[in-house]
Design goal:
1004 residues; alpha/beta; Rossmann fold; eleven-stranded mixed sheet; ten-stranded mixed sheet; elongated; FtsK domain-containing protein; nucleotide-binding; membrane; ATP-binding; transmembrane
């Protein structure tokens, strides 16, 4: 038989002791010598002096001696009084110490044996540890204390003190259930005490190991809700001999129960018996509790032990029922609950009984997703959620579960009440069967870095949009919105959440923000991963009340998701089998439904007439955008397309649409608009093959659509034509002439690279001046370069707007002023950045090439003198000879030059003197004579030009190949002409000289 009190040592076991009693004071002895000494001294002094006054000293001795005796007695009595006061104080301290140690001992006893009241109040979790049942508390009362006080009492108070120290009041009085415990008294009181005993046994007995045998009566129906089954190694029988109904185990003999004092054996039977009379109890009970009143009882034990008064431990029927249901939830969560009905191996979604819902309401998203032991498993993201966490290893049926869940939602609710945004890092095949449902706003697969940034901005914009809708409606959450306001609940499903977060950690903060604010805004997360443990942030999991775990490999993963290891024990051959906790702490085993063809078809048919849900996450920009599709593409994405409408020439200050811009932070697309009056000139930067020419054509086409084709000028063609056009534009800007609206320059960084240095620098200066001065005249420049640093800083800074096409590397893009996060290695031609946004440039017709204007023919008139400076005199002379004239070659001798001039005098044909720069320098005298009168023709380069022409200005640029030359008539500025010349005989050379000169002067 178990003892009545706990056998463990108390918290404080140091012994105490009674203070020693004070001893009686000793009786003082009479000081005889102290009396005789003064007498002898006084007699001696009298004998010597003869003075009678000396005898007075003889009297002082006895007086002092008697006084000292009385003083010693007084001091003894004082010491005795002080000793008694000190002993009383120490006794008070001892009493206080006994109380303190009794309180510690009492608390330790109740911790070891919790009262039934603390159990039903749910202050103590079930102590399921297996093995035999421990002793149970039948009440509180005095038990033997472990406190030891040494010393012998001297009076009744000390004897009472020792008795008080040996007894611990208000301690748990225990009984061994294996020895049988009977409760006798008025039926309500006896039942309450028996309920308390059964609660304690269920608190310690492990479900599945402890088997209960209960009476078939209404008073014990609450016990049937306990998680303990009818089989187990340990058994507990409850006999009710006064309930009016036959107990289930009435036929069992009383010998089935017996003492289990060793505490290590297993397989015994405990007994709790209830009766109104002691005679009705079965014989052999080791403990009988007589309950007289709610606060009064006594315990009787065999062996002549006197009855002990106790305050009985009782439990009400309602408290016992609530505790039984709570214990069942704990058992199910721990995976030790009694096995329920066997689940089917396959559940078809179309055959499940779905809950009756209001399709027009935003207050619920309840839908059956599988079968549990008690029937269809219904999950409601609104009431159970707002978010869900789904775990499952490969082959566990995780993706099929998500597909069934979404299909069930689509069948039950229209797109204006629930929408899906699906992210699948396994390629998107899992959600392919529901892609065409109007609820699906998009299926995103395998994001790249650019798309991940779009995802972050789009989801944040969706939260801001929903906040604005609620604020404008004056609603606290989405449930409070009027039915006419368009705002569907958004279910964001991420399959393989772990892979997404590992690749793009920045998305974790957005998901955490949605998890924190999604309930009121109507945004729900369903995050699926093979191993969520350690991947999903704590602030996310804290808001994921719905936990689903299909088969996982590690027990820790199962514990982290659903709080039980059961998901790790699911057999591999049962896909779809899982454990779900819907937020109530109750782990339920279920079989996930399979989305069959009938369910998918039903979802499509149920929403065939509904409009598609609003898209919070737009698809990436198309790789090709035609100008005729700009308006439709912008409007379909929620943007304003007014800027794409046709405009008249009066709209000078308006912008020109050059592409389609992606604005994920506003959940829309817009027109990439270049407004020259505000933005300045346009510079297009991009690597070879990025679409620079197409971007220029888009800008040219936009301007031509408003101001006409003639308003656009392409600076292209032969370099002589480019030179003339560039200087003609600059002259028109400075002189107030007619100017085009747009000048297009492709490959500005290499356009003049092959030109001579003087011309290259002059051309760049002219372009810079055109950029600087042309804006005031309404002339705009759009130029393209492959690298921005290929231009000088002054020229580069003159461009106010930049369109950044694809660059070879991310760093190149950043150096050009772009956003590195938008760089992608596989961007299509025309993909660009404009004002920090991703843009796809519109496709445009190639710009027409400028017409090639022929140069003036060089005509050598007969009768005149022509000085030709050529780099190659032989070739020049041959060309002149072929034209029909006789060239005169000069050398480096002055006499030869003089004779050549004399020979030409009066000649009817043209006199053509040919020499190189050195020859003319040697014949400087002749050059000086003919420089003002002769026609000077230069066929060569700068050295030949400087030989005879003293003009320091650059002459017009010649094309490569030698087909052009310079000519100066009568000291006029040099002009460009075709080479070789033609001969025109003129006998009246002198008379017609002025006319011939005028005919060769350019008309500019």
């Amino acid at each position: 038989m178990r003892p009545l009190e706990p056998t463990e040592p108390p918290v404080v076991d140091l012994p105490l002791a009674l203070p020693s009693p004070p001893g009686e004071p000793e009786r003082p002895a009479f000081p005889l010598l102290a009396v005789l000494a003064p007498v002898v001294g006084a007699l001696a002094l009298w004998a010597i002096t003869g003075s009678p006054f000396s005898l007075v000293f003889a009297i002082l001795g006895p007086v002092v001696a008697v006084a000292s005796v009385f003083d010693a007695k007084r001091q003894g009595r004082a010491r005795l009084r002080r000793a008694r006061v000190e002993r009383a104080r120490r006794l008070d301290e001892l009493r206080a110490e006994i109380e303190v140690r009794h309180e510690c001992e009492r608390r330790a006893a109740w911790r070891r044996a919790p009262s039934p009241a603390s159990l039903v109040a749910r202050t103590t979790p079930p102590a399921w540890q297996g093995g035999p049942l421990p002793a149970i508390v039948v009440g509180s009362g005095p038990i033997r204390s472990h406190l030891r006080v040494d010393g012998s009492p001297t009076d009744s108070d000390e004897r009472q003190l020792l008795a008080r120290a040996a007894s611990l009041e208000g301690a748990p009085v225990l009984a061994d259930p294996y020895g049988g415990v009977g409760f006798v008294g008025a039926r309500p009181l006896a039942l309450a005490a028996a309920r308390a005993a059964l609660v304690q046994c269920a608190h310690h007995g492990v479900p599945g190991e402890l088997a209960l045998e209960l009476p078939r009566s209404t008073e014990w129906e609450w016990a049937a809700r306990l998680p303990h089954s009818g089989t187990g190694t340990e058994r507990l029988r409850v006999l009710d001999r006064g309930g009016g109904g036959a107990p289930a185990n009435e036929a069992d003999p009383p010998s089935r129960f017996g003492s289990r004092s060793n505490g290590r054996a297993t397989g015994g039977t405990a007994l709790i018996a209830v009766a109104t009379e002691t005679s009705a109890l079965p014989p052999g009970l080791q403990t009988i509790v007589h309950v007289d009143a709610p606060g009064s009882a006594f315990v009787r034990r065999p062996g002549g032990v006197p009855p002990a008064p106790v305050v009985p431990a009782v439990t009400g029927a309602a408290d016992a029922l609530a505790w039984a249901e709570a214990s069942t939830l704990v058992a199910e969560r721990a995976g030790v609950a009694t096995a329920g009905a066997e689940l089917p191996a396959r559940v078809v979604l179309g055959e499940l009984d779905q809950p009756v819902v209001d399709r027009a309401s935003r207050a619920s998203l309840a839908v059956a997703v599988g079968a549990a032991g008690a029937g269809p498993l219904v999950i409601d993201l609104v009431h159970h959620g707002p978010h869900a966490l789904v775990a499952g290893t490969t082959g566990s049926g995780k993706s099929e579960f998500l597909l069934s869940w979404l299909t069930g939602l689509a069948r039950a609710y229209p797109p204006d009440r629930v929408a899906f945004l699906l992210v699948d890092f396994k390629g998107g095949a899992a959600f392919e069967p529901i892609r065409e449902l109007p609820h699906v706003t998009g299926i995103v697969t395998d994001l790249d870095e650019g798309e991940a940034e779009r995802a972050v901005m789009s989801l944040r914009a969706e939260l801001r949009h929903r906040e604005r809708v609620l604020a404008q409606a004056g609603a606290r959450d989405i449930r409070s919105l009027d039915a006419g306001i368009e705002l569907a609940r958004l279910v964001l499903v991420v399959d393989e959440f772990q892979a997404m977060i590992e690749r793009f950690p920045d998305l974790g903060s957005v998901i955490a923000d949605i998890a924190a604010r999604g309930r009121s805004l109507g945004v729900h997360l369903v995050l699926a991963s093979q191993r969520p443990n350690g991947v999903v942030r704590e602030q996310i999991t804290a808001n994921c009340a719905i936990r689903v775990s299909l088969r996982v490999m590690q027990r820790t993963d199962s514990l982290a998701v659903v709080g039980t290891e059961s998901a790790a024990e699911i057999a591999p051959d049962t896909p779809g089998r899982g454990i779900v906790d819907r937020g109530d702490g109750r782990a339920i085993t279920f079989q996930s439904a399979v989305a069959d063809v009938a369910a998918l078809t039903g979802a499509r048919v149920a929403n065939a007439a509904g409009a598609r849900a609003r898209r919070p996450w737009l698809d990436p920009l198309p790789s090709r955008v035609g100008r005729d599709r700009l308006v439709s593409l912008v409007r379909s994405a929620g943007g304003a397309a007014d800027a794409a409408a046709p405009r008249t020439a009066a709209a000078d200050t308006d912008g020109f649409a050059i592409g389609l811009a992606d604005e994920p932070h506003h959940q829309r697309r817009s027109l990439a608009t270049w407004t020259p009056a505000a933005d300045g000139h346009l510079l297009v930067l991009g690597a070879p093959g990025s679409g620079r020419t197409g971007a220029l054509a888009a800008a040219a086409g936009a301007v031509a659509a408003v101001h006409g084709t003639a308003s656009v000028l392409l600076l292209d063609g032969a370099r002589s034509a480019v030179w003339d056009t560039l200087h003609g534009l600059l002259a028109a800007v400075r002189g107030g002439g007619d100017c085009p609206r747009l000048v297009v320059i492709d490959d500005l960084d290499v356009r003049f690279r092959s030109w001579p240095d003087d011309y290259r620098l002059a051309a760049l200066d002219a372009v810079e001046a055109l950029l600087r001065e042309g804006r005031a005249r309404g002339l705009w420049v759009a130029a393209a370069v492959s690298q921005g640093h290929g231009l000088g800083s002054g020229l580069r800074d003159a461009f106010g707007a930049r369109l950044l096409l694809h660059h070879a590397t991310r760093s190149d893009l950043v150096q050009s002023g772009g956003v590195g996060g938008l760089w992608r290695a596989d961007e299509p031609p025309g993909s660009a950045q404009w004002r920090g946004l991703r843009v796809q440039v519109v496709e445009a017709e190639p710009m027409p090439q400028p017409e090639a204007g022929g140069e003036r023919p060089l005509v050598l008139q007969g009768g005149g003198v022509h000085a030709v400076v050529a780099a190659g005199t032989s070739a020049a002379a041959a060309a002149i000879r072929s034209a029909g004239a006789v060239p005169i070659l000069i050398a480096s001798g002055a006499d030869v030059a003089g004779r050549a001039v004399s020979a030409a005098a009066g000649h009817p044909g043209p006199t053509v003197i040919v020499g190189d720069a050195d020859a003319w320098a040697a014949n400087w005298a002749m050059a000086a004579r003919i420089r003002e009168e002769a026609v000077i023709v230069v066929h060569g380069g700068a050295p030949e030009y400087r030989a005879l022409i003293r003009d320091r200005a650059l002459p017009p640029l010649l094309d490569e190949g030698g087909g052009q030359c310079w000519a100066s008539f009568g000291g006029a500025p040099a002009r460009r002409y075709d080479w070789p010349p033609t001969i025109q005989p003129n006998p009246a050379w002198e008379a017609e000289r002025g006319t011939e000169s005028e005919s060769n002067v350019p008309e500019n």
